[in-house]
Amino acid sequence: MFYAVVMAGGSGTRFWPASRAAFPKQLISLTGRTSLLQATVQRLEGVLPSENVYIVTSESHSQALRGQVPQIPEENILVEPVGRNTAPCVGLAALHIRRREPEAAMICLPADHVVKDVAAWKELLRAAHQQVRARGRVVTFGIPPTRPETGFGYIRFGPQIATEGTLPVHSVEAFTEKPNLETAKAFLQAGNCYWNSGLVAWRADTCLDLTRRHLPTIMDGLEDIDRALGTPRYAQSLAQVYPRLPGISLDYGILEKTEGIAGIPASMGWSDVGSWSALPEVLPADDTGNVAVGTHVGIDTRDCVTYAPGRMLATIGVSDLIVVATGDAVLVCHKDRAQDVKRLVERLDKEGQGGYL
């Protein structure tokens, strides 16, 4: 069987003030009537049943999350006592999936990405499942780059090693952390360097074996939790052990150190929607380049992003701005400074403005 692990524990601080501590980016509607989490779960329909979907989230998000995805069984929503990045998160889910099915394949994916071409997405998942099931491979997905991007990690593909349906499967030669601009330009010219989508497909037991090999301290803790899984001691074990695990990402902790990984080029209209400035990638603009969620009326306004669901937002004589209005806060930011919204959130916290976070 095929399972999905949806990683939904992020805080989404770059989307303040719409994204808050108790209701973060993955739970808000940025691109339509559904939240990013709901859209992610809906994309899995037709590929695997809802009872095979696991969602890992934090305690502060869990109640709101459950209300958004009632089709997911209660026991499949795994609540981290504290956030520990993606390697422990995926390892915890792998324990539950391996307990259900020792040879299960699973796809691990972020909850807060956007995919426009759902048919292509499903074809990619089925191809990855086949490679995992038949070949035992670890499979990643590379997004063909459209610009020299310093905000994404990259995957360098090697020669083609297989074909799955109509899709080529390549060896993976290297993972690269977020590069500088000159390196990103070289990657774009190389033709075999792809943006790292953050998706990986593998067997649950392979995930845990690689965690043992590369992150033994984390695996020691996960094995303690595993011994309590399915018993009344599970909640106590999770609460005691999980906070002691080191926080480390799946890419840095495991994938970058693992040989023999396969990669599939993934043309599926993908965006990680990493900040307010990314909304033009996933929403249509008007004839003056403005992208609006909610009602926006502008005079001499160009290339702005406005977000004010249920409100009227008006602008005059401005360009290249992000304007976000919620019930208790307003953000005005130049598009080039969208990444600094995270810094603003940190400053609000330091200045005792936690009520707005």
CATH class designation of the largest domain: Alpha Beta
Q: Which strand order do you get reading across the main beta sheet?
A: 6-9-7-8-10
The value of Rg in angstroms is 21 Å
* Total E-strand runs: 15
Contiguous low-pLDDT stretches (5 residues minimum) are: none
* Helicity level: 25-40%
CATH architecture title of the largest domain: Alpha-Beta Complex
Number of domains: 2
* CATH topology grouping of the largest domain: Spore Coat Polysaccharide Biosynthesis Protein SpsA, Chain A
Cα separation of the termini: 41 Å
Report the mean per-residue pLDDT as an integer.
96
Multimeric state of these chains? single chain
- Quick one: CATH superfamily of the largest domain? Spore Coat Polysaccharide Biosynthesis Protein SpsA, Chain A
Backbone shape: globular
Figure out the total of helices.
11
Structural classification: alpha/beta
Question: Biggest β-sheet, characterized?
Answer: 5 strands, mixed, barrel
Name the helix and strand elements from N-terminus to C-terminus, one letter apiece. Answer: EHEHEHEEHEEEHEHHHHEEHEEEEH
Strand content: 25-35%
Could you describe the 3D structure shown?
The chain is α/β, with parallel strands linked by helices and 357 residues long. It has two domains: 2-271, Spore Coat Polysaccharide Biosynthesis Protein SpsA, Chain A (Alpha-Beta Complex), CATH 3.90.550; 276-356, no CATH class. It has helices spanning 36-43, 59-68, 86-100, 118-135, 181-190, 204-214, 216-228, 234-241, 250-253, 279-282, 341-350, and strands spanning 2-7, 53-58, 77-80, 105-110, 114-115, 139-143, 154-164, 167-176, 193-203, 262-265, 270-271, 291-299, 305-316, 321-325, 330-334. The strands form three sheets. A five-stranded mixed beta barrel has the order 6-9-7-8-10. The longest helix is centred in the middle third of the chain and has 18 residues, at 118-135. It is globular.
